[in-house]
What we know:
The complex is a heterodimer. Chain A has helices at about 20-30, 55-65, 75-85, 100-110, 155-170, 190-200, 215-225, 250-255, 260-270, 280-290, and strands spanning about 10-15, 35-40, 45-50, 50-55, 70, 90-95, 120, 125-130, 135, 150-155, 170-180, 205-210, 230-235, 275. Chain A is α/β, with parallel strands linked by helices. The relative contact order of chain A is 0.12. Chain B is of the alpha+beta class. Chain B has helices spanning about 5-15, 30-35, 65-75, 135-140, 155-165, 170-190, 225-230, 240-245, 265-280, 295-305, 325-340, 355-365, 375-385, and strands at about 20-25, 45, 60-65, 80, 90, 95-100, 105-115, 120-125, 145-150, 195-205, 210, 215-220, 250-255, 260-265, 285-290, 315-320, 345-350, 370. Chain B is elongated. The chains are: A alpha/beta, B alpha+beta. At the A-B interface, helix 4, helix 5 and helix 8 of A face strand 7, strand 8, helix 4, strand 10 and helix 9 of B.
Amino acid sequence: MSIFVNKDTRVVVQGITGKEGQFHTRQCVAYGTRVVAGVTPGKAGQDMDGIPVFNTVAEAVQETRADCSLIFVPPPFAADAILEAAEAGIRVIVAITEGIPVLDMMKVKTYLEGKPVRLIGPNCPGIITPGETKIGIMPAAIHTPGGPIGVVSRSGTLTYEVVHQLTRQGIGQTTCIGIGGDPVNGTHFLDCLSAFEKDPATSGVVMVGEIGGNAEEAAAEFIQTRMTKPVIGFIAGLTAPPGRRMGHAGAIISGGSGTAQAKITAMKAAGIHVCENLGSFGELCKKVFK
Amino acid sequence: MKIHEYQAKELFRTYRIPIPAGGVAFSVEEAQKVAAGLGGWPVVVKAQIHAGGRGKGGGVKLARSAEDVKTAAGQILGMTLVTHQTGPEGRLVRKVLVEQGLNIQKELYLSIIPDRATAMVVIMASEAGGMDIEEVAARSPEKIIKVFINPLLGLQGYHIRQLAFGLHLSPAAAKSFTSMVRNLCRLFLEYDCSLVEINPLVLTAEEAIIALDAKVNFDDNALFRHKDILELRDLHEENPLEVEASKFNLNYISLDGNVGNMVNGAGLAMATMDLIKLAGAEPANFLDVGGGASAEMVENGFRIIMSDKKVRGILINIFGGILRCDTLAKGVVEAARKTGIKVPVVVRMEGTNVEQGRRILAESGFNLITAADLKDAAKKVAEIVK
């Protein structure tokens, strides 16, 4: 079992003919992901390693029954690409693109509200159900199929570090999701935590956060009141200097939340096992998840 | 990206947001000339740096005569202004804004920012404007009025009414406030701002609404569609190493410690800094070379860390994903060839193509210290700088 994606997920890659799109599509295919189509406007009729390329997502969905989109479109056009995928009936959209303007993402997020579509990212490594499907840019080799641990993280490479340490301890993963580090993103900690709580194959969850925003505080509250499975948390940025900010509006809206210490305090109060030294993350997991 | 108050006020002028009469000056003579052209006393002389708290730091002075302007501008221009937002080293003041003094009845607060929690634009206003607004927000949050703007629908009339009635404005003042908020919100959205803040927003004795201060920041990710804003960048306000790093799209922040570090990914970079500190040392910088760094970017990142004279040891921590370990290794070796290695370097690599990466480093002939894992890496580099 897994959450959001599995071996039957049919993937269309938007931006498949670009340099990154090509490289990572090949990696995904090599892992066993069912990449059924690509989209690059103006290149319909071509193929990439035998994968048919279409002009629009709608055509790709119609011809190949793709239900998940993986987006490598450059930032100025990425919001457009996400909306196109949503309109075409894609169920899960994984946006890798880094550097999308905040206002673009606010419009996308507001538009998607209430629609039967899940956006993962942007600015994220994607999602992997080890042994079944890899829809993203994470290095495949560090993962271990078969569960029983779910991983959700705001960071990219920090997720790899955490997964690598789990694997080195002999602990497998059900699904690992990078939800992205942008201020406005599609899928939150809460969505993943509640899905992991419901997933029978997942027996514990690793949650990796970082400074800024109040997503970790909200997640802590959810874990305390609604979760029965053990959760291990890590927050990056304990020693980061306070941003050299200008003006007061940021401080007023966040009202004291957002620092690493505030997040760690909230997580500990909620009964989460907080790892304070990333170097011994694996050992803590071994102890808690035994 | 940040701009100066006088630049923000130029934008305000374009958007018909009322500001005091005034102009920027780079010398005492220019300041006197601007003051003379304003047609009345007093005038205010304000230091132009990218930081708040200028008044408390002595960077804002009232002048009641031409002689006063000379004294005030003479004191402010060339001073190193220290405020709670500049850090202890302060900022050199290179220009001042000279403005007409106003007949102030009341100081208000107004700001617009994107709210990450709701994915909406939030406008905040308060009757308790002025220097201590953060304290007001912490102690009596009910004094801050917040309205949330749906990004697809935009600003509506009821949003403005909620603000204007909440601020207890007279009908005359509410009228000019309404057009001001409309224009300010248009500016915010059209220019992809990450912050617009007016503190104080002044209600004059004549019931006019005027922006006495102006802070405008922009979303760096959206600058590709605002080329005119890029021209307003003031490199004097930025750390020289950070400016150098930005040329190569490197995310670099200079810090006070002596362990230089280079990491891929912001989260892992922060976690690495935390580890350096846990091992008893202090990071000299934050450097995220990004997910898709090229060998050239790695080389420049390494060179920038090396050029920081505080640095006595370097930790490279790379978890290869898009950035492959062999690419990283080539960049490091190239940088070492060009600039030499002046301090010990600890390298910790994992992930994509790690074997090729390790081989390139081992065969380079440079004395690079390899670490087995994160804990080991932090311990080794901390021992070096001890």
